[in-house]
Every structure is written in structure tokens, then in C-alpha cells.
Specification:
The complex is a heterodimer. Chain A is α+β, with helices and mostly antiparallel strands. Chain A has six helices and ten strands; from the N terminus they run ααααββββββββββαα. Chain A is 36% helix and 21% strand. In chain A, the strands form two sheets. Chain A has a five-stranded mixed sheet. Chain B folds into three domains: 230 residues, Cytochrome c oxidase-like, subunit I domain (Cytochrome C Oxidase, Chain A, Up-down Bundle), CATH 1.20.210.10; 245 residues, Cytochrome c oxidase-like, subunit I domain (Cytochrome C Oxidase, Chain A, Up-down Bundle), CATH 1.20.210; 58 residues, no CATH class. Classes of the chains: A alpha+beta, B mainly alpha. Chains A and B meet through α1, α2, α3, α4 and β7 of A and α4, β1, α9, α10 and α11 of B.
């Protein structure tokens, strides 16, 4: 019985390790500046995790393989209550390894979240709602027009309550897809109209909740042109599973011509670009 | 601590009538069995819900005619709709966490065996104990009612996940299906549950501190008792916070307060304050709910698993025929886990919008909680080392617990890092992690416990052949279900999606989703064997002697099943530590705690040999 159990534990361990090592199902290729650093941190972590996992399971299997009851009269187990030396040893080793890992695990976070976006970053306001995304661009003047929830009017397609009386709002555009430049810092100002949503683009390696009542500023830099799927990652109600949009990453010059267009032209041009670029899913 | 101080305080005569004996019983043993029956019923409901979820995920458009007949609103023409799926998610999580993982390990086995293992006649407050069960039972009735009384809306219950994040959960019916009466009942049920758990926690703590029999020093207690005690302390400190949070949430919904609802919300086409269905709200904080919830929610994880750890240590030593390796370190590790468990709740909230600086503190503290967990694992393996293992079903499940605890716990090193959470948060690696470690590992601890203690509780062994078949399929099955979910998370698959049909990047995961669903169907079906075994063995199982497993602790020194006052009027005296197996020179390979004749050179908890 013990040997069967040991073999099963070892097989499960081997298959689990294989599932990860084969990389048949793995992260999509990173498209952000911080992506490779995050991937490296993941690799170091999964290595530690994998070694500890395999060692513990192999050790457990070895114990049940080796130390079974022989049924012989007078054959007894080793009488011991433990070893203080061993306790200190494995406590210190795991503490050093785990806490080191924990401290290393802050670097990407600190780089992204403890600093504001660099000056000159390309800003987009993201306003989520059940079950759609609105992206608000400041237009030529680079100043966001004033918004007010009282001005929200779905029938006239003013989903974010943009104030038509504000001169700064005149050149603003609001779209259902996110378009951002490559190799240029991007700042998102995240808001929600109703409940909590979460901004999630897997190859971007970035996620942030959009919380009603708050404006959360985040920033990152993209490194690859293309069209990527954007999903909601926080349960927001019935149609959470299809609260979908796209993030289109464009070369700087293409984006610069887009951003100065009027609202209607912006919409049309963005539609053409979305049709032009195939969705990158790996 | 001697037994004198409490003489007469808790003693109550054996009841004679059916109702006082089996329904409103003051006997901790009956109450323990009531909790276990409650959990057995609840887990059946929760498991059926997970089965339905897997059916939906793998065959999103299939017409299940039976479902169509049962749930006209949730599965019109037999096709489960998104709100049906989401209410299954919510109810599955809530029922499993509260009414299974909190009731069976603590209320069930803790109630039955803590007093016996420390040599007490009953719990310190038997009436309080009875109340704690019946309050919990009412909570269960209310949560079931939430499925069926959701108002006119087309769901089978509340939608919010077991975490019920505000403001979705706070806005009321205007926020969509699943936010009406069902959500009120969901909150009320949890509030009731909190009260029941608090009453229970007070009882456990008082009993353990005041009612240990002569010779039962703290360091001679079985590790199960340490685990139940620590769990009770966690419950005492964390449930009131959830209770308070729940009341505030209910006030937001019913009384127009704004604890969790900020101003200026625009929901379903209506601006807050412009319509009687959506009164004016202003100034609330959605993140406050998350802090309150997780301040409870993280310790709750340890409430679920600590008793399983205790049972595993207890059973590993018994069937390895060896003392627990590093008893003292095990006690410290339980404390360390309990203490650190209160300082890591923020790791659920890295991307919630809270301060990114506090995320760093929470993250490093989270990684450090891996240390006592690893210490426990090393000591379990150390306990097996040099043993003479008897592979009973209880032992198989205890070994399974260790394997699953390692597999599930170790990915905490990934999820606990704020940087990696940017990619991992709310993807399938999260359910993979917590199902393995707090779900399945805890359940394995309870399986081990029931196969181990059933002969003491009912005088008959559970059938070992059925038990072993149950173990093999379940052990392999749960790995097949939860290991693939890890790589789904790496690909980026979000949690709580009712179907995976809308995104191109999820397409390549469909074979894995199907594999998981089939594994789940098989594993769930096999659990029926366990229920059959329980009923069959109750009447037909092999008769068990008083000491069914040649074990050492006090429950095995009294008759089977134990009499009403546990020790037939004579409280035992304890002479040894709890796990004196393989003592050189002793007549048997086990020395019971009550055995005054045998000399044990070690006092049972002292370091090296």
C-alpha cells in the first residue's frame, strides 16, 4: 500500500512539473517594458517553488515507501521527539529564502506603483461601467474636458458625462477601444461609474481595479505594436464574462495623427485601424 | 490545572427524552455530531453546485432538461444563463467556506473531541454550546432560502462571490440580477453564522484553559487541541469584524446609509438620488468593505485549515507508531500561523486601489507566513521518518493532507508577491491555490478525522475497502482538477466567467477546461461512496474496541461510545505526553496518557534523543 501511494505521489509530482516545464500553456509574450522583469521574477519564484514542491513530495513519498509496518512482534519505530538543531536549521533556511523572494518580488511593483508617470506621458481616462469600457482622450490641447455624472446621457451617447460647455472638452474624444503609443510612457486614469471593474490585458502583465468614487492613476510603457484583448477581471455582474474591449498599440507617428482628429474622425479612423490589425492572442 | 475548580459548574444529568437527547442536546458529543451532519448536508449542496458550474463551463449551450424543469428562471429551456452560473459561484463559495470548512473541523470534531482529549466532562457552557449549533443551523436555513427567495429577478440566488464586494453587493436590485432579496438573505445568513461561531469560540477557549484534568499540562495536550484552541482565538477576533461589516452592508442596502457607496454613481441608466429605486448615496468607500471582509477573510482561511493540521499530526503519529516529530515546534508553528494570519489580509487587495506602500508590507509579511507552514511540513515528514506505518484509510488521508497542503500552500509564494499579482490576480491560479490548500487539504484532514474517530463515536469501524477506494480516486481526482487550473491562470483566464466563449486568448485552454470538468464529475461521483460508507458502517461495520487503533490519547481510554459525562464519573489523570509510541522497554508500542505503570524517560515534549 505504501509503495503504491509513494509511486502515485511521485507520478503526480512528475506530471505537475512537466505541465509547467513543457510551457504548452504559458504566458502570452510580454508587450510591456516591465514585462521581462516580471517574467524573470516569476521564473526565479517558480524555480524555488518547483524545487521545494518536488523535494517535499519526493521526501514524503520516500517515507511512505520505506517505513511501513512489518507486522513483526517487537519491531518498533525510532523513538525520538525531534531535533532542535534541525528545527532551527530549516526555520532559518526557509525564512531566508522566502523573505528574500518576498523582497525581490517588490521591485517591479515599486517601479510601477510608487512613482507617478514620467512627464510627457500619454494620458487616457478609462471609465468603466456595467458591461462596457469608455476611453477618454484629451485631444489637441492635451487637457481633459470636465466630466460630471449628472451630465451622463446614454441616449446622446455621452457615456462619461463630458461637459459640452467646457472649452477643454471641445476637442476630446471618447471611444470604446483603448489606443496607446508604443515605446512611450502611458498613463491611465482609472474610474468607474457603478461597481468595481478591473483592467486586464494579459500580455501587458498588468491589472488594476477601477473603483467607483476614486481616480486611480497607473502607468506603463508598451514595447510591441498590435491589437490585444482587454478583459474585466473583477466580478461586476451578469455579463462580466463579456465585458470586452481591445487595446491597440500604435507607432508614435500613427497615433499622433489620430489624436488631433475630431471626435467623429477619431472614431472612424480607430474603426479602420482596429479592422486592420489582427488580434494578437499568444 | 486540576479538575476541582469546575466541579458542579457544568455537570448536567443525562437527558432521557428524545428531544433533549438528540435535538436540543447539551451534550458536546451530540452537538459535535449535529455539526458534522450539518456539514455533510452542506457539502452535498456545495458539491452539486460545483458540478453544475463545470457543466456550464464545458458545455455552455447544452440543454439540461432536468435543470430547465427545476430552475425555470436560471436555466430557461435547460440552458444555464450567466446569472445562474454566478449565483452558483457565490453560493458554492459561501456554503463551502462557512457551513463546511468552518463547521465540520471546529464545531464538529472540535466539539466532540476537545473536552474528551483534555479530560473534561463537557464544554464549559453546555447551553451556549447548544445555542451556537442552532444559531448556525438557522444561518444555514437562511442561506438556502437565499437561493429560492430572490424576488422576481431571474436568478437562483445572490451574485457577488463569497467575498460580496461592495458596491455591487450594496446597491440593491438596481445593480442587476442577484442583487435583490437574495443578497439581503446572504448577508443575514453570514451575520447569523458569525454569532454562532463567536459563541462556539468562547466555549472552546474557556473549556481548554479551565477544564483540563489532573496532569494535563498545556504541553501534554494533543496537537488537535492546540489547533482547535488557536482556531477559536482566531474566530473570536475575526468574526466580530465580519459581523460589523455585514451589518453596515445591510444598512447601505436597506436604510440608505453610505458606508461602502461613494457619491455620483450611475447605475443601470439612473443617477444616484434621482429615482426612488436608487436613493442618494455619498461619501462611502468600496475599499473599506474589502478591508473589513479580508481582516476576517484571511484568518478564516486558517480557521478552515488549522484543525485539519491538528488532526493530521495526531493521525500521522498514531499510525506511524512514533511520537510527533518536534511537538514544541509544531505548537509554535500553529501560533505563528495564527498570529501572522492577522497581518496579511492586504495581499487580497494589492490591486484594489489601496496604498501601494502598504502592499509592500503585506507582501513581505505574506511570504514570511510560509515559514511556519514549511516547519509543519518538515515535522510531518519527520514524524513518518523511521516509523512503522500502518496504512489505514485515516492514515492515507492524513498523508494526502500533507501532499495537498504542500502543493496548494507553496503557490502562495507566487501569489503573495505584489509584482507577480499584477499578472496573477483574479485569474484561475487563485482558485487553484486556495482550493488545494484551504479546500481540499482541509477536507482531507476531515476525511482522515472521520475515518479515525468514527469507531470511537459509533462503536463501529468505517469500511476500509470502500474507504481506500474513496481515497485513491479522490486523491488522484483532486490533483487532476486543480493542477491544470494553475496554467490556466498563467495564460490569464479570469475567474468568475460564466463561459469562455468571448476571448481568443482563452481558446487554447478549452481542452484543459474539459479535462478538469471530467475529472470533477468523476471525483464528485465517488464521494457518494463515502456517504454510503457512513450509513452502511453505522449499522453493519466491524465492531470497534475502546482503543480502536492502539492509540494513546484520552479519547481512547474511555468506553466506546463515550458515556454521557465522558469518563463515567471518574476523571482520568494524565502521566505522559500525547504521543508516546515506540517507547523503549514499554510492554506495548504505545503508552497511553493515563498509563501510570510505565516509565517514560522523556516528559513527552523535550527536544532530543
Amino acid at each position: 500500500m505504501g509503495r503504491v501511494l509513494a509511486v502515485i505521489i511521485w507520478i503526480i509530482t512528475a506530471l505537475s512539473v512537466l505541465l509547467f516545464v513543457s510551457k504548452k500553456w504559458w504566458f502570452p509574450a510580454a508587450i510591456s517594458e516591465h514585462g521581462p522583469a516580471l517574467d524573470r521574477q516569476f521564473l526565479i519564484t517558480i524555480l524555488v517553488v518547483g524545487i521545494a514542491f518536488a523535494a517535499a513530495q519526493i521526501g514524503l513519498g520516500w517515507m511512505v515507501w520505506k517505513y511501513r509496518d512489518t507486522g513483526k512482534a517487537g519491531d518498533r519505530g525510532t523513538y525520538t521527539h525531534g531535533s532542535n538543531r534541525l528545527e532551527v536549521l530549516w526555520t532559518v533556511i526557509t525564512a531566508v529564502v522566502f523573505i528574500t523572494l518576498g523582497i525581490m518580488g517588490q521591485s517591479v511593483w515599486a517601479q510601477l506603483r510608487l512613482h507617478d508617470a514620467p512627464a510627457g506621458a500619454y494620458s487616457v481616462e478609462v471609465v468603466a461601467q456595467q458591461f462596457a469600457w469608455n476611453f477618454h482622450y484629451p485631444g489637441k490641447d492635451n487637457v481633459f474636458g470636465h466630466t460630471d455624472p449628472k451630465l451622463i446621457d446614454d441616449s446622446s451617447l455621452n457615456f462619461i458625462g463630458l461637459d459640452p460647455g467646457d472649452p477643454n472638452a471641445k476637442d476630446d474624444s471618447v471611444t470604446a477601444a483603448l489606443v496607446v503609443p508604443v515605446n512611450h510612457p502611458v498613463e491611465l486614469r482609472l474610474r468607474s461609474k457603478d461597481v468595481i471593474h478591473s483592467f486586464w490585458v494579459p500580455p501587458l502583465r498588468f491589472k488594476q481595479d477601477l473603483v467607483p468614487g476614486m481616480e486611480i492613476k497607473v502607468h506603463f510603457t508598451l514595447t510591441k505594436v498590435g491589437k490585444y484583448e482587454l478583459a474585466c477581471a473583477e466580478l461586476c455582474g451578469q455579463q462580466h464574462y463579456k465585458m470586452k474591449s481591445y487595446m491597440l498599440v500604435l507607432p508614435d507617428e500613427e497615433l499622433n495623427t489620430l489624436r488631433v482628429l475630431s471626435q467623429e474622425q477619431f472614431q472612424t479612423r480607430l474603426g479602420e485601424l482596429l479592422a486592420k490589425y489582427p488580434t494578437v492572442i499568444d | 490545572m486540576s479538575g476541582e475548580s469546575h466541579e458542579g459548574v457544568h455537570r448536567h444529568p443525562a437527558p432521557t427524552g428524545f428531544i433533549r437527547k438528540y435535538i436540543f442536546s447539551l451534550d458536546h458529543k451530540v452537538i459535535g455530531i449535529q455539526y458534522i451532519i450539518l456539514a455533510l448536508a452542506a457539502v452535498l449542496v456545495g458539491m452539486t453546485m460545483s458540478l453544475l458550474m463545470r457543466l456550464k463551463l464545458s458545455w455552455p449551450d447544452h440543454q439540461w432538461s432536468l435543470l430547465g424543469a427545476l430552475f425555470k428562471a436560471g436555466a430557461p429551456n435547460g440552458v444555464m444563463n450567466p446569472e445562474f452560473y454566478l449565483s452558483l459561484v457565490t453560493m458554492h463559495g459561501t456554503i463551502m467556506v462557512f457551513f463546511v470548512l468552518t463547521t465540520a473541523p471546529q464545531g464538529g470534531f472540535g466539539n466532540y473531541f476537545l473536552p474528551i482529549q483534555i479530560g473534561a466532562e463537557d464544554m464549559a457552557f453546555p447551553t451556549l454550546n447548544m445555542m451556537s449549533f442552532w444559531v448556525t443551523f438557522v444561518g444555514f436555513v437562511v442561506i438556502l432560502a437565499a437561493i429560492f427567495f430572490s424576488g422576481a429577478e431571474s436568478t437562483v440566488g445572490p451574485i457577488g462571490g463569497w467575498t460580496g464586494y461592495a458596491p455591487l453587493s450594496a446597491l440593491g436590485a438596481i445593480a442587476g440580477p442577484g442583487q435583490g432579496m437574495g443578497m439581503n438573505l446572504w448577508i443575514i445568513s453570514i451575520a447569523i453564522f458569525c454569532v454562532g461561531s463567536l459563541l462556539g469560540a468562547l466555549n472552546f477557549i474557556t473549556t481548554l484553559l479551565n477544564m483540563r484534568t489532573k496532569g494535563m499540562t498545556l504541553m501534554r495536550m494533543p496537537l488537535t487541541c492546540w489547533a482547535w484552541f488557536t482556531t477559536a482565538v482566531l474566530a473570536l477576533l475575526s468574526f466580530p469584524v465580519l459581523l460589523g461589516g455585514g451589518i453596515l452592508l445591510l444598512l447601505d442596502r436597506l436604510a440608505g446609509t453610505s458606508f461602502f457607496i461613494p457619491g455620483g454613481l450611475y447605475v443601470s441608466g439612473i443617477l444616484s438620488g434621482t429615482n426612488p429605486n436608487f436613493p442618494l448615496h455619498t461619501g462611502g468607500s468600496p475599499i473599506l468593505w474589502q478591508h473589513l471582509f479580508w481582516f476576517f477573510g484571511h484568518p478564516e482561511v486558517y480557521i478552515a485549515i488549522l484543525p485539519g493540521m491538528g488532526a493530521t499530526s495526531h493521525i500521522l503519529a498514531t499510525f506511524a507508531r512514533k511520537p510527533v516529530f518536534g511537538y514544541r515546534a509544531m505548537v509554535f508553528a500553529i501560533f505563528a500561523i495564527g498570529l501572522l494570519g492577522f497581518f496579511v489580509w492586504g495581499h487580497h487587495m494589492f490591486i484594489s486601489g489601496m496604498s501601494p506602500y502598504s502592499a509592500i508590507a503585506f507582501s513581505v509579511l505574506t511570504l514570511s507566513i510560509g515559514v511556519p507552514s514549511a516547519v509543519k511540513t518538515f515535522n510531518w515528514i519527520g514524524t513518518l521518518w523511521g516509523g512503522r506505518i500502518r496504512f489505514t484509510t485515516a492514515m492515507l488521508f492524513a498523508i494526502g493532507f500533507v501532499s495537498l497542503f504542500v502543493s496548494g500552500g507553496i503557490t502562495g509564494l507566487i501569489l503573495g508577491q505584489s509584482s507577480l499579482d499584477l499578472a496573477m490576480h483574479d485569474t484561475y491560479i487563485v482558485p487553484a491555490h486556495f482550493h488545494l490548500v484551504m479546500g481540499v487539504a482541509s477536507i482531507f484532514g476531515m476525511f482522515a478525522a472521520i475515518y479515525f474517530w468514527f469507531p470511537k463515536m459509533f462503536g463501529r469501524y468505517l469500511d476500509e475497502r470502500i474507504g481506500k477506494l474513496h481515497f485513491w480516486v479522490t486523491f488522484v481526482g483532486v490533483y487532476c482538477i486543480f493542477i491544470p487550473m494553475h496554467v490556466m491562470g498563467l495564460v490569464g483566464m479570469p475567474r468568475r466567467y460564466s463561459q469562455f466563449t468571448e476571448y481568443g486568448f482563452l481558446d487554447k485552454l478549452h481542452p484543459l477546461v474539459l479535462f478538469v470538468s471530467i475529472s470533477a464529475i468523476i471525483t464528485i461521483t465517488v464521494q457518494l461512496l463515502f456517504y454510503f460508507n457512513l450509513v452502511w458502517s453505522l449499522f453493519k461495520g466491524a465492531k470497534a474496541p475502546d482503543n480502536a487503533w492502539e492509540a494513546t490519547t484520552l479519547e481512547w481510554s474511555t468506553s466506546t461510545p463515550p458515556p454521557h459525562d465522558n469518563f463515567a464519573g471518574v476523571l482520568p489523570t494524565v502521566y505522559h505526553g500525547p504521543y508516546e509510541f515506540a517507547v523503549p522497554g514499554a510492554p506495548n508500542d504505545f503508552v497511553m496518557q493515563t498509563d501510570a505503570e510505565v516509565e517514560v524517560s522523556s516528559n513527552g515534549h523535550n527536544g532530543q534523543h
